[in-house]
Every structure is written in structure tokens, then in C-alpha cells.
Amino acid sequence: MTPVLEISGLRKTYRSRKGARNALDGFDMVVEAGQVHGFLGPNGSGKTTTLRTLLGLIQPDGGRMTLLGREVPRHLPEVAGRVGAIVESPQFFGRFTAETTLSLLADAGGVDRGRVPEVLDLVGLRDRAKEKVKTYSLGMKQRLAVASALLKKPTLLILDEPANGLDPGGIREMRTLMRDLSASGMTVLLSSHILAEIQLICDSVTIISAGRRITAGSVAEVLARHDSGAVRVRLEPDTDQEEAARILREAGAQVTVETAGHLTVRDIAGPAQITRLLAQREIYLCELTPVAADLEDAFLELTGTAPVEGHHRQVDESALAAGQDGWGR
Predict the structure, then answer these.
(1) Dist CA 42 CA 299 (whole Å)
(2) Which domains does the chain have, with CATH numbers?
(3) pLDDT of 311
């Protein structure tokens, strides 16, 4: 099956008085149909440049891109009607209601206005549809942005930080919505700094750093590549933690003394060796638990940078004017 999105060797260089900066340096990405695909990277890594280039808002310096089997930007007008997108933080007219905002967007995009209450219901705004957008919280504006991207029932939905400003309940609802859209056959490309959510939502991920892809694959594959093999040990009450740690270190293990009664052990043959080494010294365990790798660990190891939750950026008004995708960001 042809990928819904494919990027090969994408390059973009920005030049200024300070010199040239390679925002994208031969970047590659593939998103298969029906997936929720996470697009991750530290600030300045090239994520937004990639998305804007895909949507025809930035001219690349080289490489090849396809959306829904058609090369872009050359054939973007042919597929734009099947792509919904939010890139960065869209702005709305504060004096308009959500219902009016979406109705105007529906008219502009040739979408039946009957779709408006459907998308408001999908994002949990139906009860607030007749209130002015200026009264909305940041999280509610994010929901409205997602609703606008869903108006034309896109085949591919591109979302940049859709959970920005949402409370924990709203994040859970957004997670459920993404999974439901995927189950209905829609493909979702999701950029986020909330890595725990990406791990819960996504089928696959691509991680970018300094304009290059540094890893890609299913979430399970990426985690397996970065499994540290660590084991968390809980000792019997009143056991000398430092003595237990010393014994394991003498055998070549890396040991971190955690909260009372707990050690994290790495670089050892396995739980059986931990048990044997300590039992020989009459130190006994209550629990041995493998420490599962998570996406944040993999991200930090690969990029050497910390993710930033709740990151917020200003809208680029020229992107709204482009209108390529319902919310042309």
C-alpha cells in the first residue's frame, strides 16, 4: 500500500546576516495509512519547518515529498481537500462564536454546514458553540482548531501540539478522539512534547534532531532499541541498602540507591544473578521488577535534550492566509 505521507532527502536552509542554518538536512519520514504517527524532536529540530513545507507554506531547497500518493508541492491543490492540519497555534476572531467560525470555514471550503455540529460534538464543544471565542480558554481554542481541521473529513489529519493548554481530562479526551479517528480509517500525524501521551496514542514515531531523522519505527520497536535492561529491587525491611549496593557493584553492576528499600540495577546478567549474589550474603528480596523503557528515555538518549511540556508558539498570520487545508498551517 502506498504510504499516506512520504518524505525523502528534504532540505531547507535559512540564510541571514549571521550565516546559513540547515533547518532540514536530508530528512526522511514515512507515515502508513490508518496509523497515528508521532513526530518528535526538540525545539528547533525542524518539525514545524517540515510540516509547513508539506503544506506548501515553505519552499524546500531539495528532496521529495508525497501526500496521498501525489508529489507536493506540485500537486498539492489535488490533495489539499483531503488534508486537515493545524501547525502551531491558530488564531480566531474573538467576537465570533465557535459555531459562526466553523460555519464560515465550511462555506469557504465548500463543506456542508451540517458538518459543523458534528465536529463540535467530536471535540466536546457543542454545549459552548454559541459562546464567543474570546471567552474561551487556551484549551478550548485548541479544541476549536481541531474541529476546524476535521470539517472536511480529511484522509490525513496533521496536528501540531493539539493538547496544548488542555487539562488532564481534556488530554484524555483528545487521546480518545485520536484513537477513534484512526479506528475510522483516518491517518493522524501528531506532533507533541508530551511524550507519555505519544507513547499511549501512537502506533509509530519518527524522531528528528538537527534536521535529520535519528530513529523511526513502531513505538514498540523504538522502545526495544533503548531498553536499558534495568531491574528495580525491593529489599526486605531493615536491610542495609548500601551493603546490598556494594555487593552488586563488586559484580560489575551499576546500582542507584532509590527510596528506602529500593535499588535500580543495570549491567547485570539478569534477575537471577541479583538474587543469587545477595542471597549468598543473606540479603533477601521482596520484589524484582524489570524497568520498562519509555519514550521519554529514548528521546533523551537520542537527542540529549529534555522535552518541554505545554510549549506554546505564536501564530504566523501568513499561514492562515494560505488556506491550503481548512486551517492552512
Answers:
(1) 9
(2) 5-225+304-322 (3.40.50.300), 231-291 (3.30.70)
(3) 39
Task: Please say whether the beta carbons of 51 and 85 come within 8 A.
Answer: yes
Residue type, 106: A
Query: Which residue has 563488586 as its cell numbers?
Result: 250
| Strands of the chain, DSSP E | 5-16, 19-31, 36-40, 62-67, 70-72, 83-86, 156-160, 187-191, 204-209, 212-218, 231-235, 254-257, 262-266, 285-290
Per-residue pLDDT at 308 exceeds 80:
no
* Per-residue model confidence (pLDDT) at position 58: 94
Alpha helices by DSSP H, 184-294: 195-201, 219-225, 241-250, 271-279
Q: How many CB atoms lie within 10 A of CB 202?
A: 25
CA distance 3 to 31: 6
C-alpha 140/C-alpha 142 separation (Å) is: 5
Contacts of 24 (CB under 8 A, 6+ apart): 10, 11, 12, 46, 49, 50, 53, 60, 63, 211
Whole-number percent of the chain with pLDDT over 70: 92
Could you tell me what percent of the chain has a pLDDT over 90? 53
Per the prediction, the chain carries an average pLDDT of 86
Q: What is the pLDDT of residue 305?
A: 62
> CA dist 153 to 11, 36, 82, 181, Å?
31, 16, 7, 10
pLDDT tops 80 at residue 257: yes
Could you give the CA distance from residue 208 to residue 200 in angstroms, rounded to a whole number? 20
Q: Which residues pair with 103 in a beta bridge?
A: none
**196: phi then psi, degrees, rounded to nearest 5:** -65, -35
Which 3 state secondary structure label does DSSP give 238?
coil
Helix then strand count (H, E) for the chain reads 12, 14
